[in-house]
Amino acid sequence: MSSNTTGHDGLPSSSTDADRTADAGDVVITDVMLRDGLQNQPTHVSLDGKLLLLRALAAAGVRSAEITSFVSPKAVPQMADAAELMRATAQMPMRLSVLAPNLKGLERAAAAGASEVAIVLSATDTMNRRNINMGLDEALRVSLQTLGAAIDLGLRTRAYVAVAFECPFEGRTPAARVRELAVPLLEAGANEIVIADTIGAAAPGEVRRLLDALLPVLPVARVGMHFHDTRGMGVANAFAALQMGIRRLDASTGGVGGCPFAPGASGNVATEDLVLMAEQSGYRTGISLPGLVAAVDLVENLLGSTHGGGAMPWLRRMAAQRRTEPLTA
Ligand code: HMG
Ligand code: MG
Fold it and tell me: DSSP code of 144?
């Protein structure tokens, strides 16, 4: 049980707060702001800026984060400092994941000291070609090969199935396809299968239907969900997933992000929105909302642009009030 629980006003409170609903269990939130969030940003964030962001996330109580990608710096210039960032974070008290979609990425990640890697397999041929320059069959083969090699190195692994609801090029994705791809990734030993709504096209009923198709063949404890918030459904989708028993959710502080290779993909569901919804619904995230407000302020300063989920104006007002109130014992 974390000491960082938050009350309905978004401020730290005791876990015995009478207003809290019944304890619904722990939720692991992986903050992907440094990877998914920054990969699409036109403003370059320096290594020092990234370290400041990561420290702000750690100070807010985030315990799992995906921080960079070992991909071609020509394809994603913002991730060119992946090895330096990895080495500089060796002492961080967090679970840190990095994206490594092929063997070359894995070799670079392992050499830089990564202990957890993520591969990304898209559910359609065109999305794989646009993202990692290979068709679906080759992408599955390379993903399994990279996963196997990561496991042999003793690394923890996450395996994304991207465009699991809709592909910007091929339209709606059949649930059977997602299942056909997720099962071999699981059988190859991926610790976590992350079902991703890359372009934020899902609605809660579809989340339930896809999970209905997946959970008979995937252990719920090993399934994570990764929602983008393009149509404002991210929090509702995450709640649907929680109700189906999912306890691993990705989110990006400030809602920063989007995939450069998937037209129309906007940022991930904001970590602050997800934490507020989850805590107020009785789940424990261990993440402090005032801490996230400080992290969003920092990311805005570094990017020179405005960010924050739907709850951010209210959270900012609460945080400001708290700063002006006299401290009491
Ligand atoms: P490629 O051109 O097909 O690779 O790129 P290649 O094997 O033909 O090699 C070409 C050059 O790239 C060679 O260098 C390789 O060494 C180099 P050269 O000889 O020309 O100097 N190369 C690499 N360099 C660094 N790291 C590597 C690597 N691999 C080859 N790992 C590649 C294939 C995957 C590298 C390229 O297509 C790429 O970098 N794509 C970017 C993928 C990416 O970062 N996408 C965004 C993240 S995915 C996402 O956001 C979705 C997600 O959030 C879930 C969701 O929301 O759905 C995860
Ligand atoms: Mg994503």
Answer: H
